[in-house]
Design goal:
The chain is of the alpha/beta class and 219 residues long. The chain has a single domain, classed as TIM Barrel (Alpha-Beta Barrel), CATH 3.20.20. The protein is built from six helices and nine strands. It is globular. The chain binds iron/sulfur cluster. Iron/sulfur cluster binds next to loops.
């Protein structure tokens, strides 16, 4: 079992809005890319208080998976901003997958260009089943499933990834699913909001007397 630390913003199960089936979602902490229009600005800071031992996170994943698991989605933040921890996480997920009857896939998001990831992070890419790279571009809205902007491809990286994700590469959807999670610290959404969705949500809450305080889509 790896002893690495990993900086994590949040984790959730089941996630159904970021990849096929019922998934574990892991949002890693830390991103220096500052894409204009980013709705996850709470994940930007590289703060030490978000670090936790990887075995603890793995144990939580294995506990959640008792209810079934189709995939793990890793997002952020920028997962590749902590490459050693990301590699250790992926190695641990592979080790677990080899030992269990669960045939879950691993999908990862990155705001880095695909060409850069290929040059710098080949050992990490070897452990992914699918990847959605490229920076979010607010001026290029899209209906492509699981994508934030039209420049972001869905790239299968393994046989399992090809089997699971090929049907979705060019699939467009009318309405984007957004899961709302309430925990003791915050209310947060899982999914890819469309242009103006969060502002509309904020306005509709205000009309009902609910005023949102610190929101992650404004710096
Ligand atoms: S959209 Fe993703 S990659 Fe871009 S600033 Fe936000 S968290 Fe970072």
């Amino acid at each position: 079992m790896p002893s690495a630390m990993i900086a994590l913003n949040k984790a959730h199960y089941p996630v159904t809005a970021l990849g096929p089936g019922r998934r574990i979602g892991l949002w890693l902490q830390g991103c220096a890319l500052a894409c204009p229009g980013c709705v996850s600005q709470d994940t930007w800071a590289f703060t030490a208080d978000r670090r936790l031992p990887l075995p603890l996170l793995l144990a939580w994943c294995q506990d959640m998976a008792q209810n079934g698991l189709d995939g793990v989605t890793i997002s952020g933040g920028e997962p590749f901003a902590q490459p050693a921890a990301l590699l250790a996480l992926l190695q641990a997920l592979h080790h677990w997958r080899a030992e269990t009857v669960l045939n879950f896939d691993i999908l990862c998001y990155s705001g880095l260009p695909w060409s850069h990831l290929q040059q710098e992070f080949a050992p990490i890419l070897d452990l992914l089943d699918a990847l959605i790279p490229e920076p979010f571009q607010t001026h290029r809205p899209t209906r492509l499933i699981w994508r934030g902007s039209a420049n972001q491809p869905l790239i299968p990286l393994s046989a399992l990834g090809e089997e699971r994700y090929a049907p979705y590469r060019h699939l467009e959807i009318e309405r984007r699913p957004l899961q709302i999670v309430v925990d003791p610290e915050r209310v947060w959404g899982i999914g890819i909001p469309g242009p103006g969705d969060l502002e509309r949500l904020e306005q509709q809450c205000a009309e009902r007397g609910v005023h949102l305080g610190d929101v992650s889509w404004r710096g």
